[in-house]
Amino acid sequence: MKYQNQNLSEELLTVFSCSCHVLQESLLSSASGYSNYRGILNWCVVMLVLSNARLFLENIIKYGILVDPIQVVSLFLKDPYSWPAAWLITASNVFILASLYIERRLAVGTISEMTGLILHFLILTSMLVFPAAIVLTVTSMTPVGGVLSLGVYTVFFLKLYSYQDTNRWCREIRQAKAFFVCLFVLLFCLFCLSFLDMYYFLLAPTLCYQLNFPRSSRIRKRFLMRRLFEMVTTESKCRVFQWMVPTIQNSMKPFQVPNHLIWLIFFYWFFHSSMNFLAELLQFGDRGFYRDWWNSESVTYFWANWNIPVHKWCLRHFYKPMLGKGFSKLQAQIAVFLVSAFFHEYLVSVPLKMFRMWAFMGMMAQVPLAWFVGRFLTGNYGNAAVWLSLIIGQPVAVLMYVHDYYIYHYGTTT
């Protein structure tokens, strides 16, 4: 019997050793836990390059080379001897130095907190009104120069707001602590309130000020050169001009312009190449400029992750202070979208000198859209809804301004 059992065990072992099936899920199933899709991503990139190369080649054959360096320069300058945008940006140093001077006086107590608050309010308000007035009144200011100028002033506005807010928090901590801690905080604040510290913060790829930023140990030259190459490459510029110019000139069909692709190119150029280049040059350690917004399953997740510097500023200096004052989360969220909608409209309407409110309404439309997607759509359906809003949302609204600007200045539709 023992011999027979041994033979049976060997036979069963032989049968099981020939088994080729196990309990498992297909790799493309979410239950499999598989996440390495690099090959599929590379395939998508190759297909995108090939398809765009075909369209690009067809466009060149039909219209020729439309990218003229002189034409590019003319977008910034109407008169080669007049540089209104450059002078306007240079003038921002007046507001910067005034803000630094006020903070120094507040640190040593020569002016009251209320006086400092009023002075900061006047400076920040002037930083929005003054450049807008110059852009609207100076005839030699081009739309591109206006966007550049107002963009710089808007960034400095947000930075200086964070600068005064953070320093005020430090003064409040100093007043609440013991004498020796108070003396240490005072000396540290005075050390930080320097020209070097101020301009480092203004150049750093962040909108939120703190007394001590994380710094990288060295500048990686190879990494820096790669980002610089991505920044100066002319491929994206060629695509923009080669696609947009003939479409706008031949017919007023803005939806045929690949504005969504242009938006994606801009995102990579600005948030990855440019900001990493600047951070590497300044040895700024925090490189979290964006997160996986492309996987967003809700509109709120997208807005919280595609532009981390702005999200951090809104959260730190606007959203949480509103909650601290007794406002509800919904009220604070709507207020954040209102502020964002204002700046979207400000940065488009003023340079074009056309007030259509499309950018403002497009931004505010995100509020009910966020509620609808969060309530009724989840998973891949939510992600598809987010992508749909990106394709037909703000890029189309901006292109509508460009479309009307071209009609107003260069002709009408037939």
Oligomer: single chain
Tell me how many strands there are: 0
Q: Number of helix segments?
A: 18
The residue ranges in which pLDDT falls below 50 over 5 or more consecutive positions are: 251-256
Task: Give the helix/strand class.
Answer: mainly alpha
Beta fraction: under 5%
Order of helices and strands: HHHHHHHHHHHHHHHHHH
User: How confident is the prediction overall: mean pLDDT?
Assistant: 79
**Distance from first to last alpha carbon:** 100 Å
Sketch the major β-sheet: none
* Secondary structure: helix percent: over 70%
Q: If you compute it from the alpha carbons, what radius of gyration comes out, rounded to the nearest whole angstrom?
A: 28 Å
Shape: globular
Task: Describe the structure in your own words.
It is a single chain. Helix 4 (84-108) packs antiparallel against helix 5 and helix 14 packs antiparallel against helix 15. This protein has helices at 2-17, 38-63, 69-74, 84-108, 113-137, 143-176, 179-192, 195-203, 221-232, 235-250, 259-282, 299-305, 308-324, 329-352, 358-364, 366-376, 379-392, 394-410. It is built from 18 helices and no strands. The termini are far apart. The protein is mainly alpha-helical and 414 residues long. It holds the Pfam family MBOAT. InterPro entries: MBOAT_fam, Oat_ACAT_DAG_ARE.
